[in-house]
Known about the structure:
- There is one protein chain.
- The chain is mostly helical.
- It has helices spanning about 10-25, 40-75, 80-110.
Amino acid sequence: MSRRDPADDTFGTVEARYEKWSEANPRRRGPSAIKIPEISDSAEKAVGMAMGFGAGVVLLLLAVVAGTAAASWARVDRSGAAVAYSVTTFFLLLAGLGALGATYNHVFRVIPRDAPEHH
């Protein structure tokens, strides 16, 4: 059992010295390194639309690649790989169509509506 006073703890003394030093040497606040550009609502909508539709198109292109791979594996009688690529094709198609649908819904149906009242 130690008889030392917890106030004499090293952390306490270092903390106290730092507090004293920081009060004597206040830090200047410079401009923030994080800059968020101000853009118009229409530009924000266009960027969101491009990102959403772009992601959907990329997923659909990946589905085409996976479907082509499934067909090529089926031609060489590798049914396991053909099934795996077919399943991958299905889910990529689902994700791509979902991305396109969700982007369309958000840009053309959700954003134009008025914000709901909060009570």
